[in-house]
């Protein structure tokens, strides 16, 4: 409840006070701190029915009805655009007024009832939260309505808020009730304007029923169901394929199936990729999930051209279309469960047609899921939670919830006594980097020598240069480079020729293109392993994400002490220490969203004991696939047993052969099965020895994730039901493992085919929302990954929790046609007119002596310097060009004949000012 005191009794309201009013009234307002000033950004649903005038928040009119949108910014809108999409689909233009005080007023008088969308754009980009949704009701409708996030979702331990509007509804008594897994305290506040603000506090996760009655009758929409989740909830999911296999009409027996790709178009026009496979009769068939009855058209193409008889026509019968309503689910495990045991239920899809089955479980612990397919259309599915509480089980068939889903399951039993510690820090936006300024990227990597570290920077134009790397303080290193153009640069940092965790880095010169959690990256030993009682450390790079709140949590058998060091350059260093060994989860969130690959699973080993005495000797360098290699481990008097295993880039494990060759030395023999970076885990009495796991590069082919690029319409804005694609260019990257994962509000049909410049990934989104596309090469994110893709359009499948679709391809070495004749030059950006030169050697030269001049191209961008000299009897005797650093050159030449000579100096393909020069000898 908010009351304004007289000025002499209380100081004027600060923006923080105002923001509290926003939170209580609008439910969807955040405060972000920029350059020490607080600004409120509106991004929620608009409860107003008619926006007639702009409301400025001052003590005088604070109690007025909310009747406008206010965007509090630190700048005036240079180019601004707003439009309202009406329920009929027509678009209307509201009035925008600049108040010339840092606020903009949007006025709109609705002409239709129903749900409207207001899009507000600044310089062509949606402002935060746009498009906003608001519902318009006629004032004479007499309905009592309720709106607000607390009616649909929330987090336990935090108030769920909503508002009830009784305007124009006459006399009557208002009553409310909240039923659910916990007692929820309700508080109400009459706003004296025909609306009531309601807040309730759920203390346990689960499904809550919210009843709102007016005059003893349920209002429209009551009772409401709100799903309340717990903080830091864990999610696990599995998918079981159930696709229809259809043989293509006629005799289609293409041999090279990998060079073909196929898509299927349903009668409604929905087109999506489908998979080709060889059927037992050697004919070619397709595997797809039927969504509609009727005639479908299948296109099979090679390099974009139809094969013989393509497109094919296939008829889908009624009984083949997947129908989630016909799936039968039995078992008490979807109501009640127990911790540390398998809770089993049965799913019967025999009468439901073809469709993929997906199951996700979200709750206080990541429940282990097992699926037993009886191969008769029925499955036994079990889950094993480790913590008691309420779990939400989503069960979908053919992209639709089965009857009763999502299920709320009450799990009882003993927990695993996991303890959680969390710290939160505000991250400021790093100042924009300009062309020509010194750029710095820092990381901490204790226990290495700077001689083994190397770094390169690739500009947006494709020019790669070595970067300077130096040790700032013990274990802290900095990469220095001076950019020559705007855009996204790729910074690669390697230790012993292998990318360090987090590399390759994205480094934007100029304004950031997009920010948020998907632009935060983390890496370091503390996200892989640790030792009880010892500090465990890792780096977090937030530079590309902009300003925001960074939260680090450590959850496991014992409480963690977390330390945080901000390096003030867009990177920070986190150190944590735990007392007990076991499995821990390290969560990293930015603005309440997990960053890519978070939470990390970290095994903390017992205190090292004698393991720290062991030393590794004769570690191999040139290792090949399927050829044995070995190294020695000296015990140095330690008592115990050594064990070792090798883990391939794909994740498969193989034991190493260990032999005690004398009382104090082990021989460890291993045989790698995959090219790429393998790791050897060596443990003594169950504890990693110093340096373990050891990373080792296998094979000559160096698959470089820094050289992989992704481009295409499928990485921009996409529409539901429309097939879209993007190309992953691997031409300069060598052979490796390409893994593409798409996370979003629905599963997507997805395939990957080989094209000339790399691999084309095609997918069809079915539900609007934000999708995140991760592209990894040999387990490293490429620059720009994960890509945030916004999808618009109609719902073509049921929306559920975040779904994940992925495809993995073992790539081959690709060479584009332009490179077949030899290497191609990078795309240079340079200006020859900015090159200067000076020296006597440009005017007069002497026989048999070293004549000299200098060329300065520091401001001319990147290119190649060409110098040539031609005299009365042909070229001069000798000519040397020496690069002195920073695009400064020294040119020496010797002539043996008298006469007039011409000196040509070119920067790339263009003559520099004054060239060609006439030289008298």
From TrEMBL:
Keywords: Actin-binding, Cytoplasm, Cytoskeleton, Repeat
Gene3D superfamilies for this protein: Immunoglobulins (2.60.40.10)
Repeat in keyword set: yes
GO MF annotation terms: actin filament binding
Gene Ontology process terms (BP): actin cytoskeleton organization
InterPro entries linked: Filamin, Filamin/ABP280_repeat-like, Filamin/ABP280_rpt, Ig-like_fold, Ig_E-set
Subcellular localization: Cytoplasm, Cytoskeleton
Chain positions of Filamin repeats: 81-136, 136-228, 225-316, 319-411, 409-509, 512-604, 606-698, 700-791, 827-921
Identification of the protein by name: Filamin-A isoform X4
Species name: Thrips palmi
Lineage of the species this protein comes from: Eukaryota, Metazoa, Ecdysozoa, Arthropoda, Hexapoda
């Amino acid at each position: 409840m908010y009351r304004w005191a007289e000025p002499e009794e209380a100081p004027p309201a600060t923006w923080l006070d105002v923001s509290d009013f926003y939170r209580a009234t609008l439910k969807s307002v955040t405060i972000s701190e920029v350059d020490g000033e607080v600004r409120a950004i509106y991004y929620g649903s608009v409860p107003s029915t008619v926006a007639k005038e702009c409301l400025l928040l001052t003590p005088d009119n604070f109690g007025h009805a909310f009747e406008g949108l206010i965007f509090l910014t630190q700048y005036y809108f240079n180019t601004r655009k707003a439009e309202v999409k009406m329920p009929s689909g027509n678009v209307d233009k509201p009035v925008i007024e600049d108040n010339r005080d840092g606020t903009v007023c949007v006025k709109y008088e609705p002409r239709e009832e129903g749900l409207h969308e207001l899009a507000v754009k600044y310089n062509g980009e949606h402002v935060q939260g746009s498009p906003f949704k608001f519902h318009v009701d006629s004032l004479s409708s007499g309905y009592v309505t309720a709106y607000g996030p607390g009616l649909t979702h929330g987090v336990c331990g935090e108030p769920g808020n909503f508002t009830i509007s009784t305007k124009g509804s006459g006399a009557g008594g208002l009553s409310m009730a909240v039923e659910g897994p916990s007692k929820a305290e309700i508080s109400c506040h009459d706003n004296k304007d025909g609306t009531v603000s309601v807040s309730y506090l759920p203390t346990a996760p689960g499904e809550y029923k919210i009843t709102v009655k007016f005059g003893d009758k349920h209002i429209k929409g009551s009772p409401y169901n709100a799903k309340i989740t717990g903080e830091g909830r864990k999610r696990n999911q599995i998918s079981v394929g159930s696709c229809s296999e259809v043989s293509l009409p006629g005799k289609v027996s293409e041999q090279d199936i990998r060079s073909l790709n196929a898509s299927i178009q349903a009668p409604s026009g929905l087109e999506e990729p489908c998979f080709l496979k060889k059927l037992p009769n050697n004919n070619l068939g397709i595997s797809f999930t039927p969504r509609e009855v009727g005639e479908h058209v299948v296109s099979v193409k090679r390099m974009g051209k139809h094969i013989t008889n393509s497109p094919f026509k296939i008829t889908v019968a009624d009984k083949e279309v997947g129908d989630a309503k016909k799936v039968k689910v039995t078992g008490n495990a979807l109501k009640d469960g127990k911790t540390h045991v398998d809770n089993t239920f049965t799913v019967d899809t025999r009468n439901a047609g073809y469709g993929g089955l997906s199951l996700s479980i979200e709750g206080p612990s990541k429940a282990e899921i097992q699926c037993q397919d009886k191969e008769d259309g029925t499955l036994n599915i079990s889950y094993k939670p480790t913590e008691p509480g309420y779990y939400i089980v989503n069960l979908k068939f053919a992209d639709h919830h089965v009857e009763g889903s999502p299920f709320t399951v009450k799990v009882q039993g003993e927990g695993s006594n996991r303890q959680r510690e969390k710290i939160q820090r505000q991250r400021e936006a790093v100042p924009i980097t300009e062309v020509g300024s010194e750029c710095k990227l820092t990381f901490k990597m204790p226990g290495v020598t700077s001689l083994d570290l190397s770094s390169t920077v690739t500009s947006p134009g494709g020019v790669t240069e070595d970067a300077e790397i130096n040790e700032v303080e013990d274990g802290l290193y900095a990469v220095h480079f001076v950019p020559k153009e705007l855009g996204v640069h790729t910074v690669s940092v390697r230790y012993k020729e292998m990318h360090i965790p987090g590399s390759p880095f994205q480094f934007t010169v100029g304004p950031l293109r997009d920010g948020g959690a998907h632009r935060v990256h983390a890496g370091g030993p503390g996200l892989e392993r640790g030792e009880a009682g010892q500090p465990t450390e890792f780096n977090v790079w937030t530079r590309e994400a902009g300003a925001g709140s960074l939260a680090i949590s450590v959850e496991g058998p014992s409480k963690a002490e977390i330390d945080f060091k901000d390096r003030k350059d867009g990177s920070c260093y986190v150190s944590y220490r735990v007392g007990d060994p076991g499995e821990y989860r390290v969560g990293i969130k930015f603005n309440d969203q997990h960053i890519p690959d978070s939470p990390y699973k970290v095994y903390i080993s017992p205190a090292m004991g004698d393991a720290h005495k062991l030393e590794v000797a004769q570690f191999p360098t040139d290792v090949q696939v399927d050829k044995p290699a070995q190294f020695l481990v000296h015990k140095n008097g330690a008592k115990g047993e050594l064990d070792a295993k090798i883990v391939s880039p794909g994740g498969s494990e193989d034991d190493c052969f260990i032999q005690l060759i004398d009382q104090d030395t082990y021989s460890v023999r291993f045989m790698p099965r995959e090219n790429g970076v393998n790791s050897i885990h060596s443990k003594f009495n169950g504890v990693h020895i110093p340096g373990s796991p050891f990373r080792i590069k296998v094979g000559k082919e160096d698959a470089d994730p820094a050289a992989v690029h992704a481009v295409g319409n499928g990485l921009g804005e996409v529409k539901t039901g429309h097939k879209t694609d993007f190309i992953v260019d691997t031409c300069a990257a060598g052979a490796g493992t390409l893994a593409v994962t798409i996370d979003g509000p629905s599963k997507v049909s997805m395939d990957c085919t080989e094209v000339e410049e790399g691999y084309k990934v095609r997918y069809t989104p079915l539900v609007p929302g934000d999708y995140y596309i991760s592209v990894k090469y040999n387990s490293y994110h490429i620059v720009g990954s994960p890509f945030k893709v916004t999808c618009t359009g109609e719902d073509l499948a049921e929306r559920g929790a975040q779904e994940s679709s992925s495809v993995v391809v073992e790539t081959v070495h690709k060479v584009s046609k332009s490179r077949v004749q030899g290497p191609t030059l990078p795309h240079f950006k340079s200006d020859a007119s900015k090159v200067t030169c000076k020296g006597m050697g440009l005017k007069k030269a002497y026989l048999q002596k070293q004549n000299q001049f200098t060329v300065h191209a520091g401001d001319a961008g990147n290119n190649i310097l060409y110098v040539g000299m031609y005299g009365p009897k042909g070229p001069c005797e000798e000519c040397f060009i020496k690069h002195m650093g920073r695009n400064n050159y020294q040119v020496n030449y010797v002539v043996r004949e008298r006469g007039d000579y011409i000196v040509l100096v070119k920067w790339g393909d263009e003559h520099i000012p004054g060239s060609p020069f006439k030289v008298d000898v």
